[in-house]
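TICKET: design request
STATUS: open
ATTACHED STRUCTURE:
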């Protein structure tokens, strides 16, 4: 029989995500993006809120973010790939909207997901 270790616990590393996979959050994001199409004429294609972060959702995020960064040198290529540049631009956008993130790292981490959830809640989604 072994006694429990009395070693001081090490902090666990913060969880990193390669892709956004939270189905409910993706549906909320898709609905939010769809709500932006009409008033701002971003794109003609409406997203099907299916909870998958595929090419169409990635393109929609890229188009939406480009309206804020197009005049700067940070415009995204609208290619439908979910990459670190897109995530970093999203993080910069969320920070510009008052959400707290330690840095724009380009990683789908817990802080980014929390900031996105808060943003969508404030937008009514």
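STATUS: resolved
RESOLUTION: sequence designed for all positions
ATTACHED SEQUENCE:
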């Amino acid at each position: 029989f072994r006694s429990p270790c009395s070693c001081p616990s090490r902090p666990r590393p913060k969880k990193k995500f390669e892709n956004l996979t939270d189905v409910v959050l993706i549906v909320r994001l898709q609905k939010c993006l769809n709500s932006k199409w009409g008033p701002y004429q971003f794109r003609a294609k409406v997203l099907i809120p299916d909870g998958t972060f595929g090419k169409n959702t990635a393109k929609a995020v890229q188009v939406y973010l480009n309206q804020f960064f197009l005049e700067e040198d940070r415009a995204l290529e609208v290619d439908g790939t979910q990459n670190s540049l897109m995530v970093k631009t999203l993080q910069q956008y969320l920070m510009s909207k008052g959400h707290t993130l330690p840095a724009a790292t380009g990683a789908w981490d817990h802080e980014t997901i929390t900031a996105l959830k808060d943003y969508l809640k404030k937008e009514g989604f």
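CLOSING REMARK: DSSP finds four helices and two strands in the chain. The beta strands are 16-17, 108-109.
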